[in-house]
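Entry 12.
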Amino acid sequence: MSTKTIGFVGGGRITRIFLEGWRRANALPANVLVSDCNADTLAKLQAQFPGVQTTGDSHAAAAQDIVFLAVHPPVMAEVATAIKGSVKPGAIVVSLAPKFTLAKLTGLLGGFTRLARVIPNAPSVVSFGFNPSAFAPALSAADKTDITTLLSPLGESPEVAEEKLEAYAVLTAMGPTYLWFQLQALREVAAGFGLSEAEIGPALKRMVCGGARTLLESGLTPAEVMDLIPVKPLAEMEAQVSEMYRTRLPALYQKIKP
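Predicted 3D structure (tokens):
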């Protein structure tokens, strides 16, 4: 696995998350080439990750042993079509975007079938990601191991049915954005009460993790869990927030479904 070369077509957020996650886990692959059409993006990557090679040529990145398509859905068709002649027959192409199925990617790549799809998760940057994966039938067990070995330093990467990937995109890939701004606001309020960052950090982490585990692992019903704490300072806002989840997220899911 260590001898395989890695290419990223696209040098944006998710590429930086993967590279930083690997670096923090002391698992940055030896041979990584990142392509992007933006010279400033490449310069920043080169400064942040001196051991990673960069190029403005997407065909060079697409010619590696394992190729990550790290571009947004609106440009996926254009990018995949452009690089199809550069992908090696024995390579593995991994899409990091929702909406584009394995079958559609095969068509865009001129019949190439050695494909995988991963829905990436930002907490991968601290090795606590949840990156569900789906594999095309053309990939062998050894091929799958190559991909899961790359993903393992970033967190969990369960194999799931491809048709569930877009649901995971809404749940896990975008999920942190539903919570981060609220947790940061709570962090700032706690600081205003006189708690230091050294005191806030572990308390907030334990509260968030413990709250999730209580909801999911206590064996209590959701109503019983929510009744464990009698004082609910934001109770009058709960219905409005819940309604936002029930309306906006299904609409988003319909938008990104293949």
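Annotation: The longest strand covers residues 6-9. The CA atoms of residues 148 and 253 lie 26 Å apart.
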